[in-house]
Design goal:
binds S-adenosylmethionine; single chain; 10 helices; alpha/beta; 273 residues
């Protein structure tokens, strides 16, 4: 693809020939910040597992319910790790609708996600955007964006939505979560949504979809429920614990699905005691 096809919103250093996690996800969500190379791989996965669109929408719906839950617990500052390309119902929109003084730091490694986040947040002084690899918690936590906006003497809501399935066991996801946990004051909350399934849930159509995604975009690790629960070490899980996404504190009958297992994902929220 030559530079003539580079949209004006794409930072100059982005490789238009390599799909990215953030842009493929944006395409499934119906967003416009993706390239032909992202759509090609996203469409191949979609052909195998059309449910993927409902899955990504479920992660977003879980995020909104979790943020509203945290607001109800008094949380007014959020650290959104792997925040993605902004779409409908971003964390600062939900939080600042409840309290205009709520503060949010968005962190993502993806240049398009960061550029678009910065573009829509110009003028909002209670929100900042950091381009960083969330696996390096120390770097993220000591960044000026985090240090200047978040008050570590008050509880913080850390969000890891559809993120940790991109961190294989060899990179120690539990250790990464622990690095953030140890920096948080008591009363802080951790929210995770994660790809995963239990025995018997796996549709064989996922075998091909997973290979296409792993080869084209990034290695994805589906985890079992007990493995997702283990990520909450040092946090007390709030009811109903780690649950299939549509079953985590549904707010209306529309949130629930009679076959929640087909969304092959879990979500949970825990409080640091
Ligand atoms: C599937 S998207 C989810 C985006 C957002 N959390 C949401 O729910 O809409 C995963 C995001 O995590 C980001 N990501 C993956 N690995 C990362 C890493 N090591 N450091 C920072 N961001 C990462 C990707 O760039 C992408 O934007």
């Amino acid at each position: 693809m030559d530079s003539g096809e580079r949209p004006n919103w794409a930072p100059v250093d982005v490789d238009l020939a390599r799909p990215s996690i953030a842009r493929v996800y944006d395409y499934w969500l119906g967003g416009a910040h993706n390239f032909a190379i992202d759509r090609a791989v996203a469409d191949k996965v979609l052909a195998d597992v059309p449910v993927i669109k409902s899955i990504v929408l479920n992660h977003r719906a879980f995020l909104r319910r979790a943020v509203r839950f945290l607001l109800a617990q008094g949380i007014r500052q959020f650290l959104d790790l792997g925040s993605g390309i902004p779409t409908v119902g971003n964390v600062h929109e939900i939080a600042q609708a409840t309290d205009p003084g709520a503060r949010v730091v968005y962190v993502d490694v993806d240049a398009v996600a960061v550029a678009h986040s910065r573009a829509i947040l110009t003028g909002n002084e209670l929100v900042s955007v950091l381009q960083a690899d969330v696996r390096d918690a120390k770097q993220v936590l000591k960044s000026p964006e985090v240090q200047e906006l978040l008050d570590f003497s008050q509880p913080i809501g850390v969000l890891m939505i559809a993120l940790l399935h991109f961190v294989p066991d060899s990179e120690d996801p539990r250790g990464i979560v622990a690095d953030y946990r140890d920096a948080l004051p008591d009363g802080s909350y951790l929210t995770i949504s994660h790809a995963g399934y239990e025995e018997g849930d796996w549709d064989p159509a996922w075998d091909d979809a997973k290979q296409v995604y792993n080869r084209g975009v990034s290695e994805m690790c589906f985890r079992r429920k007990h493995e997702v629960q283990a990520l909450f070490e040092g946090f007390d899980l709030v009811e109903p614990g780690v649950a299939r996404l549509p079953l985590w504190r549904p707010e209306s009958p529309d949130d629930v699905d009679e076959d929640a297992a087909r969304f092959i994902s879990f979500g949970g929220v825990g409080r640091k005691a």
